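In the design runs reported in the main text, the only information available to the sequence generator was the tokenized backbone. The following block is the verbatim input for one such run; it is reproduced so that readers can re-run the procedure and compare outputs position by position.
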């Protein structure tokens, strides 16, 4: 394991030990849970945007699909948490795959507009299908996962530290999936499509299949994030899956570093932590994020992850071997 791997492991250990060093600061734990909730769909969007070059402005609509599917299954059908998450991911991924086939008929900014339109339509369904989604009032009474039992020991997800462990575990699972995808032949073909789709098609790559697959993967992760969110808040509300939330997700990925494995985590931590550090409202948060987006576009196109990589190279420069002249 290299130095970067050790640094990532150290950060993960620090986050995993948060229930101990933040035991007297429940608000800090609440912020970390919120960041984990945002990280999961952000990883899905990073696969689409950063690695596939697909900018979706309706991403949180698919998180809403996963959230409401899980809500119906857990409340009305009395399913447990794990199968509800799997069903929600399958529903969001299938919806994303089918919708992407229509979106891919358009290119460039037309593609983004069509994804935005589908996001608005999904939000309208959540807001008006009262018999299933409970309408604008929200779908209340969503349970936390059932307690885990080992003999006489019971692990309940009601307390905040225990739910944080679940949220962190699901976020790590999303990052592991992203790592496996990016470092596979599929990920390399995806990178070729992002760089030059025509050239990749001329080399025999089925670009439509690859783009549809990564879109379905990204929306499936969005569905998983939606389930985690409503399980944490105990209610599913259409206001959590609006166009504004989708745009916020794009900002999280770009500011964190689109195409970077750790970019979604950096963007989510900044998005959650910055308003609390500066005591800002949601409106001012968007203003500051807009300014940061302009500055990052101008001076750090690889986002916060790129800045961290440059700082790492400055702190730990690579050794160079001198080559003797003949």
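Verbatim output:
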């Amino acid at each position: 394991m290299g130095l970067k791997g050790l640094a990532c492991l150290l950060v993960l250990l620090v986050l995993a030990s948060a229930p101990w060093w933040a035991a007297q600061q429940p608000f800090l734990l609440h912020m970390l849970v919120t960041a984990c909730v945002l990280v999961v769909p952000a990883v899905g969007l990073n696969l689409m945007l950063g690695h596939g070059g697909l900018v979706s402005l309706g991403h949180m609509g698919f998180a809403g699909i996963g959230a409401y599917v899980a809500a119906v299954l857990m409340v009305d059908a009395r399913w447990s948490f794990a199968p509800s998450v799997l069903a929600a991911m399958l529903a969001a991924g299938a919806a994303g795959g089918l919708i992407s086939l229509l979106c891919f008929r358009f290119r460039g900014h037309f593609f983004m507009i069509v994804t935005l339109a589908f996001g608005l339509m999904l939000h309208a369904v959540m807001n008006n299908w009262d018999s299933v989604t409970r309408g604008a009032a929200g779908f209340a009474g969503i349970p936390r996962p059932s307690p885990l039992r080992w003999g006489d020991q019971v692990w309940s997800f009601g307390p905040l530290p225990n739910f944080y462990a679940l949220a962190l575990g699901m976020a790590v699972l999303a990052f592991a999936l992203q790592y496996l995808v990016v470092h596979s032949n599929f990920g390399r073909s995806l990178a070729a499509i992002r760089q030059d789709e025509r050239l990749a098609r001329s080399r025999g790559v089925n670009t439509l299949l690859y783009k549809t697959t990564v879109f379905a993967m990204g929306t499936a992760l969005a569905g998983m994030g939606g389930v985690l969110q409503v399980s944490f808040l105990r209610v599913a509300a259409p206001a959590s899956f609006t166009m504004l939330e989708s745009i916020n997700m794009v900002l999280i990925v770009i500011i964190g570093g689109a195409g970077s494995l750790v970019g979604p985590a950096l963007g989510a931590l900044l998005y959650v932590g910055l308003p609390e550090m500066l005591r800002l409202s949601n409106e001012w948060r968007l203003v500051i994020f807009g300014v940061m987006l302009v500055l990052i576009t101008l001076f750090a196109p690889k986002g916060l992850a790129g800045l961290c990589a440059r700082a790492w190279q400055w702190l730990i420069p690579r050794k160079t071997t001198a080559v003797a002249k003949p």
